Amino acid sequence: RGISNPITISIPGVANNAVKASASGLRKVKGNTYTLTPGKGREVVISVSGTMSNGEPVSDKRKFRIKDIPAPMASVRNEVGVIRMPKSSLAKATISAQLIDFVFDVNIVTTGFKIKIPGQATVVVNGNRLDSKAQKALSKARRGDIITIFDVKAKLKDNSSYRLKNVMPLSVELSN
User: Fold this and answer.
1) How far is C-alpha 58 from the geometric centre of its chain's CA atoms?
2) Partner residues linked to 116 by β-bridges
3) How are the residues of the chain apportioned to helix, strand and coil, as percentages rounded to the nearest 5?
4) In DSSP terms, which residues pair with 83 in a beta bridge?
5) pLDDT of residue 55
6) pLDDT of residue 26
7) Which residues in the chain come in under a pLDDT of 50?
């Protein structure tokens, strides 16, 4: 839900140009390639029909579950969970949110986050990189400190009205 899902629709024995498909949120792209942008509810029914080469009409309906997008995970350098990196790298890094092992690529934009450095107050950052206040707090961190990046604000690039689940936090152990 919330994104255009690429799908292929065909009927065995029916030429692609003779297949007609319909469903709420279904749009033909080209040939037998479609996108399905599901709306409300828990399932969608796709109806297909066509004509066999011998002139015989065929039709079918298939029901598909509609699932919400899972919770993204905060990441740095495409790494998630608990990672280890130099302080200088974290200071310049882009904080992003990713869907791990998702079926296809989804563009997620990070608009802000909070960073907690041991012995420092939590810093609220707008954007996807550490600002000067966050970098100043980071400069006081020491090797072995665990930096927590949490409360990441993210949205879908192509559908900013869709509300993503809360982004899972990221922990960074400083290697120097």
Assistant:
1) 37
2) 148
3) 10, 45, 45
4) 172
5) 87
6) 96
7) none
Report DSSP letters for 123-136, one per residue: EEEESSB--HHHHH
Q: For residue 45, give every residue at least 6 positions away whose Cβ sits within 8 Å of its Cβ, in sequence order, or none.
A: 23, 61, 62, 63, 64
Q: What is the pLDDT of residue 27?
A: 96
Q: What is the pTM of this model?
A: 0.80
- Report the C-alpha gap between 90 and 93 in whole angstroms: 5
Residue 115 DSSP one-character state? E
Nearest to 113 by CA among 77, 155, 85, 84: 155
Beginning with the edge strand found earlier in the chain, give each strand of the sheet holding 33-36 in spatial order.
5-8, 33-36, 26-30
The two structure tokens encoding residue 121: 């107050």
Classified as helix, coil or strand, 145 is coil
Task: Name the 3-class secondary structure at 88.
Answer: helix
pLDDT at 22: 96
Amino acid at 58: V
